[in-house]
């Protein structure tokens, strides 16, 4: 009502004929009593002519002579004017098609840059863009444009879920994941549904909810989406099964991942974090084979993944670090402790702000594994283990936890 009362000011909204009639009834006055000279100048001539024939439907508290019956042609004109007024509102929008296209391009940029840039900086940029999209959704636009905004919002919340998990805040990650799923369902967007399931499966794995991780991955696999998401979902299912000690289920999921890549159609509409290159798939396979007791296969896959990564234009430092950790763990399991330190040198050289939660956790697991087995007392093992422990003590999640709290929400 405040916007109607400010009309015809710049930040106000012109009341429709129906609104003016309703207000006159509420205030027990004639419609003309609500209009001053500025209002009359701003109203279209057609509306003014129609209002001259308006008569209140409710009885007034003070007696007035009965108004003459409204001529039938004027009622027809009034109805047409009301429809025209509503159509004008329905056609209006607070965002244009070019702006929507730019927003989607910005989402693609964030998903790509997160693989190589400072994670906290990328988190803040993603939050800022998400807030812009949310503000637009709170305004008015045609349904087609609303769907596009929901898709962008869903991918942005998916990015924030993944980032929050990497930065060690799994509760926040789960919240972003649920919001991303709401956006995917509202937009009815297949690819977004599948990638949100992938993101939620990843969060569940690192939260120790392994059966939830399997269910999220399987739910996403039921969506017929283009691109590499099918291969990634099967890899994530295999990862969860291997942590549960279910060897046959893990191997079956890896086989489905290979099949998904063979029958893949289309491309990934976002890319970057929301894509699964062959090197990323080999990284998952290496981790799974390590957990189900097949270190030789894991070593082959880790080396293959590093070769593939060398051919990629964009090298994701998180994926590369995990591949090298798998390589080191496989060497240790194969009785080759002397090669462990060499495999880990690029990881140990990572700056603290890039040492994400999953990488730090895998390094901690490797250090724990070094304390057992035939090579536990070897000098190479001792040196590598000490270096890993010192490395894990200075990580991005730890820095964030000790900061003022300007981090994942």
Helix content, binned percent: 55-70%
The secondary-structure element order is: HHHHHHHHHHHHHHHHHHHH
Radius of gyration: 31 Å
Q: Given the C-alpha coordinates, what overall shape results?
A: elongated
How many strands, which pairing sense, and closed or not: the largest β-sheet?
Answer: none
CATH architecture of the domain at 97-276: Alpha Horseshoe
Give the number of DSSP strands. 0
CATH class of the domain at 97-276: Mainly Alpha
Poorly predicted ranges (pLDDT <50, ≥5 residues)? 55-62
The pLDDT mean sits at: 87
Distance between the termini: 35 Å
Structural class: mainly alpha
Task: Give the CATH topology of the domain at 97-276.
Answer: Serine Threonine Protein Phosphatase 5, Tetratricopeptide repeat
Beta-strand percent range: under 5%
Output the CATH homologous superfamily of the domain at 97-276.
Tetratricopeptide repeat domain
Total helices: the number is 20
Characteristics:
Serine Threonine Protein Phosphatase 5, Tetratricopeptide repeat, 20 helices, 409 residues, single chain, mainly alpha, 68% helix
Folded structure, characterized:
- By secondary structure, the chain is an all-alpha fold.
- Among the domains are: 2-91, no CATH class; 97-276, Serine Threonine Protein Phosphatase 5, Tetratricopeptide repeat (Alpha Horseshoe), CATH 1.25.40.
- It contains 20 helices and no strands.
- Helix 16 (317-333) packs parallel to helix 18.
- The protein is elongated.
- Mean pLDDT is 87; it is low at 55-62.
């Amino acid at each position: 009502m405040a916007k109607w009362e400010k009309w015809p000011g710049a930040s106000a909204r012109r009341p429709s004929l129906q609104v003016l009639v309703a207000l006159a009834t509420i205030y027990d006055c004639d419609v003309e009593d609500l209009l001053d000279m500025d209002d009359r100048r701003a109203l279209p001539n057609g509306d003014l002519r129609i209002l001259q024939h308006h008569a209140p439907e409710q009885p007034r508290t003070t007696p007035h002579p009965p108004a003459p019956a409204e001529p039938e042609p004027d009622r027809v004109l009034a109805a047409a004017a009301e429809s025209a007024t509503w159509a004008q509102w329905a056609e209006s929008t607070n965002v244009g098609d070019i702006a929507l296209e730019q927003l989607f391009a910005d989402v693609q940029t964030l998903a790509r840059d997160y693989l190589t840039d400072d994670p906290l900086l990328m988190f803040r940029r993603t939050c800022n863009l998400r807030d812009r999209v949310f503000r637009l959704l709170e305004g008015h636009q045609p349904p087609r444009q609303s769907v596009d905004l929901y898709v962008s919002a869903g991918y942005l919340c998916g990015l924030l879920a993944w980032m929050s998990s990497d930065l060690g805040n799994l509760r926040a990650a789960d919240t972003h994941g649920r919001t991303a799923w709401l956006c995917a369902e509202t937009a009815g967007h297949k690819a977004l549904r599948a990638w949100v399931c992938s993101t939620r499966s990843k969060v569940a794995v690192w939260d120790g909810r392994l059966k939830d991780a399997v269910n999220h991955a399987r739910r996403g696999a039921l969506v017929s989406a283009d691109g590499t998401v099918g291969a990634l979902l099967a890899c994530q299912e295999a990862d969860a099964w291997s942590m549960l000690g279910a060897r046959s289920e893990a191997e079956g999921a890896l086989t489905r991942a290979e099949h998904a890549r063979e029958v893949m159609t289309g491309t990934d509409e976002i890319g970057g974090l929301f894509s699964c290159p062959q090197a990323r798939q080999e990284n998952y396979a290496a981790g799974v084979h390590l957990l189900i007791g097949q270190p030789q296969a894991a070593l082959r896959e880790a080396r293959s993944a590093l070769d593939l990564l060398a051919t990629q234009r964009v090298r994701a430092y998180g994926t590369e670090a995990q591949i090298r950790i798998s390589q080191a763990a496989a060497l240790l399991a194969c009785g080759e402790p002397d090669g462990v330190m060499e495999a880990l040198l690029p990881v140990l050289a990572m700056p603290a702000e890039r040492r994400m939660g999953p990488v730090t956790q895998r390094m901690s697991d490797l250090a724990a594994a070094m304390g057992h087995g035939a090579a536990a007392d070897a000098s190479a093992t001792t040196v590598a283990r000490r270096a890993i422990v010192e490395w894990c003590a200075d990580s991005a999640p730890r820095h964030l936890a000790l900061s003022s709290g300007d981090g994942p929400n």
